Amino acid sequence: MKAVQILGFGTDPDLLSIVDAPEPESPGEGEVILDILAAPINPSDLLNFQGRFGSKPPPLPCMAGGEAVGQVRELGTGVDHLRVGDRVLALFAGRGNWCQRIKAPSVGLRPLPANADVNQLAMMAVNPATAWHLLKGFVALEPGDWVLQNAGNSAVAHNVVKLARHMGMRTINIVRSQSQCASVLEAGADAVVVDGSDLADRVQTASGNTPIKLAFDAVAGQATAKLGRCLANGGTVVTYGLLSSPSCQIDAADLVFRNVALRGYWFTHWFETSTVEERNAVYDVIAGLIESGVIDVEVEATYPMSQVKAAVAHAALEGRKGKVILLPQL
């Protein structure tokens, strides 16, 4: 079968290679064979290609790919909660799902909605779960509250917008350029502001001077401090990405005199420390919201695995309006 391998760290897509990998062995007791149907190219994948994801880079060469959706191809003995043809999340393989088939433990796997769009299901494991925890895990929010976030045109931000609207909250989304505003508003954002020196004033205007107690930071660096300046006394900035810098900056005056807090969130930590029951409780909600159309993230392009280099180059472009999806079976 075909799989994608990382040969070296960097931003050049030529550091990726399509290789012939051995077919998975027949499933043992409690195991399944999955055909990988679709896999999104996430910022974490791009960081992994650069050796910047996680506490230390993986040894090279290594297999590529994080989240994906798979379809059950073969069942091992003792697997009675799944059927051949069921679609399931493929997360347990860690970074290595950009391949055509994998063998995996069946524990914790459950069928996904049969009528849901396969590309939306492929994107449900990381970004919607991240958005869910950002909204539910740090500050007690009430209907009508405002939430502020940068990287407003990112996939996580779009999920925050849709989930916040579903929960009755409102969002202010910071983008880099005016050209990005329309797509964020179309996704359901209540307000969009372009980054700039007077950001705090324009955020206040957008919220009608309503105090904002929670902000989400995907950028790090000086962007963290900009968010802190926009928050009410006692507000919280949650950094979950490092798109521009490996470190966060925040004004000491905000920390000391206004009690603004800086927290961190990493999806992988939650996934590795939560129980199967805790994970499935979140994914059951997300799957239902995908099936009902509440979560519907724009897909800009799909690529067969044979065009993985073009797909990665596309995913790295600034100003994209949607996700890039890899289709290993094509």
Offer a concise description of the structure.
With 330 residues, this protein is α/β, with parallel strands linked by helices.
CATH-scheme architecture of the largest domain:
Alpha-Beta Complex
Q: How many beta strands in the DSSP annotation? A: 15
- Beta strand %: 15-25%
Question: What value does the Rg take, in angstroms?
Answer: 20 Å
Largest sheet report: 6 strands, mixed
| Helical/strand content category | alpha/beta
CATH superfamily caption of the largest domain: Medium-chain alcohol dehydrogenases, catalytic domain
Which spans of ≥5 residues are poorly predicted at pLDDT below 50?
none
Binned, the helix content reads 25-40%
CATH class categorisation of the largest domain: Alpha Beta
In whole angstroms, how far apart are the ends? 12 Å
Secondary-structure element string:
EEEHEEEEHHEHEHEHEHEHEHHEHE
Number of H- or I-type helical stretches: 11
Overall form: globular
- By CATH, the topology of the largest domain is Quinone Oxidoreductase, Chain A, domain 1
Walk me through the structure.
- The chain is α/β, with parallel strands linked by helices and 330 residues long.
- The protein has 2 domains: 2-123 and 298-327, Quinone Oxidoreductase, Chain A, domain 1, CATH 3.90.180.10; 127-267, 3-Layer(aba) Sandwich (Rossmann fold), CATH 3.40.50.720.
- The chain contains 11 helices and 15 strands.
- It has helices at 43-49, 118-122, 127-136, 155-167, 181-186, 199-206, 222-230, 252-257, 267-273, 276-292, 308-315; strands at 2-6, 16-20, 31-40, 62-63, 69-75, 87-89, 101-105, 146-149, 170-175, 191-194, 214-217, 236-239, 261-264, 299-304, 323-327.
- The strands form 3 sheets. Strands 3, 5, 6, 7, 14 and 15 form a 6-stranded mixed β-sheet that branches.
- Helix 7 links the parallel strand 11 and strand 12.
- Helix 6 crosses helix 7 (222-230).
- The protein is globular and about 60 Å long.
- It starts with a strand and ends with a strand.
- The mean pLDDT is 94.
